[in-house]
Amino acid sequence: MFDNLTDRLSQSLRSITGKARITDENIQKTLREVRKALLEADVALPVVKDFVAQVRSRALGQQISKALNPGQQFLKIVEKELVSVMGEANEQLSLSAKPPAVVLMAGLQGAGKTTSVAKLARFLREREKKKVLVVSADVYRPAAIKQLETLADEVSVDFFPSTPEEKPVDIANNAISHAKKQFFDVVIVDTAGRLHIDEALMTEIQDLHKAVNPVETLFVIDAMIGQDAVNTAKAFNDALPLTGVILTKADGDARGGAALSVRHVTGKPIKFLGVGEKVDALEPFHPDRIASRILGMGDVLSLIEEAERKVDKDKAEKLVKKVQKGQKFDLEDLRDQLQQMANMGGMASMLEKLPGMGNVAQMAEQANVTKQFKQMEALISSMTPDERRNPEILNGSRKRRITQGSGTDIQDLNRLLKQHKQMAKMMKKMKGGGMSKMMRGLGGMMGGGGGLPPTMGH
């Protein structure tokens, strides 16, 4: 979502990062570019004005620190301001009320409310270890109730049945009294949306809010609606005491301005980002990490957290022991590595979280690296266990059988074997420890002069 903004801002800031000192003149020039970049990214005009004014006053009154050159200093100021526009830190849900804590979800139709209910329920069940009940008070949209039931089943949380004939307030009250009897920790109430803001919708949601007295009232907004996000957010904020925002469809190619505007307009924190269709695609929103990513400085913390959750620790441990003992790195190990990488969203997704790797991630995406990894996996899966452990036994007829079985060509297989050989060599170097050896090995694998592995250039 922020790619566009990242490109524009890094271009704007490039002119100042090499300067020996910050002057009034080069600040003015850079800020003009920054202002343009933000407006093009669909950030609301009042937000842009405030942002630019803040950066200017900070930069002019800045005591230049000895550790940073003036350009870096300016970048730091821009990053700090971006963070303060989006909210200082990640704000968690406050569910410490007497159970069941009620979470009310509000927003326009099509913003992804019902899916977000399921994602949030899964998040609370898995990461916060809560017993969650979901209920739909959307009695207008055909199949809204059925959709939530299906999703609840998918994320393994309890669903409270309701019918279109009931009143939304009654549905919510019945669900809450059921949750009290059954000792649920959290009840998430999905409400009806409309295609636009109208009196009837607002009155209904206000009544619901009064009746259930939620600890969290979350406003679900679609990142793709750009400028209009501001008006919608304002209307909901005036009608309801919102406690936070969930920004959905952040994986789309919207311009990212909504994220920067919503927090400023409502004064309420963005608590979560919806980053895909799947039910696990919900991430806590960390303003500092997002700001760092927007400025092309990477987001290593999120990468580490993702690895913590998604990497199979036993397999990783086994490989480390194997390498330390100097045992052979075989094709089974390579397949494990490819699968672990796929679990973390693939090569491009990992690269763009590393500092300065945004462009490499784009190149990897264009070179269709994910497809190549899948092809490598298919090749390895077409081998017998013996061949995976001892690739040197692969003769002409075995190679033919493997390529036919995986729908690939002989040169694909030869390329895989060559890469595996390079990796095995690198692993061998790591036997005696020493990170520098590994880095040298990596340099060799990346085709000598760094950059992408040979296959990625093809």
UniProtKB/TrEMBL annotation:
| Protein name according to UniProt | Signal recognition particle protein
Please give the record's comment on domains.
Composed of three domains: the N-terminal N domain, which is responsible for interactions with the ribosome, the central G domain, which binds GTP, and the C-terminal M domain, which binds the RNA and the signal sequence of the RNC.
Record-linked InterPro entries? AAA+_ATPase, P-loop_NTPase, Signal_recog_part_SRP54_M_sf, Signal_recog_particl_SRP54_hlx, Signal_recog_particle_SRP54_M, SRP, SRP54, SRP54_GTPase_dom
Q: Which PANTHER family match?
A: SIGNAL RECOGNITION PARTICLE 54K PROTEIN SRP54 (PTHR11564), SIGNAL RECOGNITION PARTICLE SUBUNIT SRP54 (PTHR11564:SF5)
Question: Where does it localize?
Answer: Cytoplasm
Which residue intervals define the domain SRP54-type proteins GTP-binding in the entry?
A: 269-282
Q: What is its EC number?
A: 3.6.5.4
Determine if Glycoprotein is one of this entry's keywords. no
Database matches in SUPFAM superfamilies: P-loop containing nucleoside triphosphate hydrolases (SSF52540), Signal peptide-binding domain (SSF47446)
Task: For the region Disordered, give the residue spans.
Answer: 387-408
Question: What's its catalytic activity?
Answer: GTP + H2O = GDP + phosphate + H(+)
Task of the protein? Involved in targeting and insertion of nascent membrane proteins into the cytoplasmic membrane. Binds to the hydrophobic signal sequence of the ribosome-nascent chain (RNC) as it emerges from the ribosomes. The SRP-RNC complex is then targeted to the cytoplasmic membrane where it interacts with the SRP receptor FtsY. Interaction with FtsY leads to the transfer of the RNC complex to the Sec translocase for insertion into the membrane, the hydrolysis of GTP by both Ffh and FtsY, and the dissociation of the SRP-FtsY complex into the individual components.
Q: A Gene Ontology CC term for this entry?
A: signal recognition particle
Q: Which UniProt keywords apply?
A: Cytoplasm, GTP-binding, Hydrolase, Nucleotide-binding, Ribonucleoprotein, RNA-binding, Signal recognition particle
Species annotation: Marinibactrum halimedae
Q: Which residues bind GTP?
A: 107-114, 190-194, 248-251
- HAMAP family linked: SRP54
